């Protein structure tokens, strides 16, 4: 078997859905006995560190406050953002206000909120 280059692998990953990619990561972790957890950077030492952390929030929740007129589109977006099945995603949308994503990075929260708003939902990022 020919060895694939990094660009070839990335091209293959681009074609995968999030669920397929998640399953691949799990299989990779099991095969090579590793975890794909992000490295945690050490907090800077000194008295200023707690004050800086209190000012800048790094975890956000994306809360669906309403489905709007295009409920089916909103359900599709919720399924794309989460690993929920159809019934679970529908129940989440029907039970709004409910959190769709919790404790995610700011950029991920903003992208998720934009996707949901684009589908016609009303969203809060906290």
Write the layout of secondary structure elements.
Layout: H1 6-14, H2 18-32, H3 49-55, E1 60-66, H4 71-81, H5 86-94, E2 98-104, H6 106-118, E3 122-125
Antiparallel strand pairs: 1-2, 1-3
List keywords for this structure.
126 residues; alpha+beta; 6 helices
Summarize the structure.
This protein is an alpha+beta fold and 126 residues long. 51% of the residues lie in helices and 14% in strands.
Write structural notes for this entry:
The protein has 126 residues and is of the alpha+beta class. It is 51% helix and 14% strand. The chain contains six helices and three strands; from the N terminus they run H-H-H-E-H-H-E-H-E. Helix 4 crosses helix 5 (86-94). The protein is elongated. The N and C termini lie far apart (49 Å).
Inertia-based shape: elongated
| Residue windows where pLDDT falls under 50 for at least 5 positions | none
DSSP helix count? Answer: 6
Strand order in the sheet with the most strands? 2-1-3
What is the residue-mean pLDDT, rounded to a whole number?
A: 81
Helix proportion of residues, in percent? Answer: 40-55%
Content-based structural category: alpha+beta
| Beta-strand percentage range | 5-15%
Q: Mind summarizing the main beta sheet?
A: 3 strands, antiparallel
* Rg, nearest Å: 19 Å
In total, the number of strands is 3
Ends apart, CA distance between termini = 49 Å
